[in-house]
Give the backbone structure.
Amino acid sequence: MRRIVSGIIYALSAAIGVLAFIYPFFVDVPLQVHGQAHSQDAPLVTAALVGLSVVALLVELQGRAISAKTVALLGVLVSITSVLRFIETAIPIPGGFSPIFAPIILAGYVFGGRFGFLMGAFTLLASALITGGVGPWLPYQMFTAGWVGMTAGWLPHIKLPASRNAERAKRLQESLTLFALCVLGFVWGLLYGVIMNIYFWPFAVGSASQMWAPGLSLWETLSHYAVFYMVTSLAWDMARAIGNVVLILLLGTATVRALSRFRRRFHFKVRPADA
């Protein structure tokens, strides 16, 4: 029963996130500038996301789906990754590159989608408090970063058939895993920007060929958004995508090994429900 309740909570969180992004396309909302978009509903969305995440964590603990030591690890990883975002604000970094996404992807892959969602959401919350990045955009960043970690948990854990050369098979397995993580990191480097733009795009003003307006068909909306994204965000997000790949190539294998040892030592099991 706790497992079902936990699944419902995560599904509800995802539904709230999707609705928060797309509702301006279906209701008559007053025109707002970028910095004021969602200024009225953002506190409610943030409270709902944080509340549901905490409840989900408590349910997981009560059901012993995760251990207290794993929750402590979640806190440590969130703290470390949040500090990385502080470094990002202190040192100029090209484009939209951020060092926070690689740890979220790697932790989500090792511990599963639910752990990854919590790490992504709480990392953006904690880092915003550290760097002063709190604003109406925050819950949308939290949802999107949570989805980054969740989808990392959906990646299959590659298991090669037993062979005589165990060491060679292990290296090949790690190489295939690293390749899959790099692909995911690259895709999310772009997709994060694609999703986050939707947070303010319905309120933006500019060229009619790039902006949304009530009455546009679905095809017109998608084509306008594609032009808007190509012109304003693609180069910026490409830096994030390439940066994710570089960090995962440099740190991915060692990090996955370390986190996997922790998971085995404390008997953390990634259940099929996380996939």
In short: Residues 270-275 have pLDDT under 50 and may be disordered.
